[in-house]
Specification:
It is a single chain. By secondary structure, the chain is mainly alpha-helical. It has one domain. Helices cover 70% and strands 0% of the residues. Helix 1 packs antiparallel against helix 2, helix 6 runs antiparallel to helix 9 and helix 8 crosses helix 9. It is globular, with a radius of gyration of 17 Å.
Length: 218
């Protein structure tokens, strides 16, 4: 019974993010399919999110999320940033303005679906996998469930941030710093704070994208 419970716990942490990645790679890159992916991942998230304990400590995630949003947005149009920080290093990464998510292309309902999916679906799915599972698994291996997010482990934090950064091409360097901020939020306020931070980042970024028309972020 205990072994089955461990497998169930493992599935809860991994399944939402795994579903997102699988669907991302098999579905066309359209606004309609993004909405489908969001709904499917959200259904899996609902099985786990009811166990998240929300408390005052989760507010540690707010400043962390705002800081990450600043990392992500402010230097984007600087030549040195696009040449030296974005991949491939040493070459000016062009700004791709083509997007399937602009309301004039897909309609406001699907633009809103992109906002909701990026802020309230993929953000918690990534935190469950990277912070709540991968970080603790790197620390403790098979006994990862006994590891506490409040315990800071540099090796686990750095490796988790590295894996997280691989998912965020071409912003590998910035994503690495963002992951460290989320990990710090998790240390101060548990997984609820990390989720709060990531949701705040993605929500602010989405609002900025729509308001400023900076669709290349999406």
């Amino acid at each position: 019974m205990e072994h089955m419970a461990e497998k169930k716990d493992l599935a809860m942490f991994i399944a939402p993010f795994a579903a997102w990645i699988v669907l991302q790679n098999i579905l066309p890159a359209t606004a309609e399919m993004y909405a489908v992916r969001s709904v499917a991942t959200a259904a899996l998230l609902c099985l786990w999110m009811r166990k998240v304990r929300f408390c005052k400590r989760m507010l540690w995630g707010v400043p962390a999320g705002l800081l990450v949003a600043a990392f992500w947005i402010l230097p984007e149009n600087c030549d040195w940033y696009r040449t030296c920080v974005l991949w491939p290093f040493g070459f000016a990464t062009p700004i791709d303005t083509a997007t399937p998510y602009a309301p004039e292309t897909c309609g406001w309902p699907l633009t809103a679906a992109k906002l909701l999916g990026s802020a309230f679906v993929i953000a918690p799915a990534e935190e469950l996998f990277f912070r709540s599972f991968l970080y603790r698994w790197i620390m403790r291996g098979d006994t990862w469930r006994d590891a506490k997010l409040e315990t800071w482990n540099w090796s686990a934090a750095l490796w988790t941030a590295f894996v997280f950064s691989l998912e965020h091409s071409p912003r590998f360097v910035v994503a690495f710093l963002c992951a460290m901020c989320y990990q710090f939020a998790a240390k101060k306020g548990g997984i609820a704070a990390a989720i709060t931070a990531h949701v705040a980042t993605n929500l602010l970024l989405a609002v900025y994208v729509i308001a400023a028309g900076e669709w290349h972020f999406w």
